[in-house]
Amino acid sequence: MRGTVRRGALLALMGALLACTSPGDSPLHQASGREAWIPAPQTPFSDYVLENESRIREVLSTYHYADQENPFGSGYPLERVVAMRAPYEMRNPASACPESVAVSKRQGFLLIHGLTDSPYLLRGVAASLLEEFPCALIRGLLLPGHGTLPGDTLAMRHADWLSVTQYGVDSFRGEVDALYLVGFSTGTSLSIRYADAHRDDELLQGLIMLSPALAARSDAAWLSPYARWFSAWLGRESEHDAARYESFSMNAGAEFYLLTRGLTDPDFEPLQVPVFMAGSGDDTTVNMEAALEFFCTKAPVDSRQMLWYRAEATDSGPSSMCTGLQVVAAEAPEQRVVSLSHTSISMPPEDLHYGLDGAYAICLQYGDGSPDFQTCRNDPTQTVYGERNLGSEGRHEGKLVRRGSFNPHYDAMLEAVGCFIRDDC
Question: Which CATH superfamily is domain 27-263 in?
Answer without folding.
Answer: Alpha/Beta hydrolase fold, catalytic domain (3.40.50.1820)
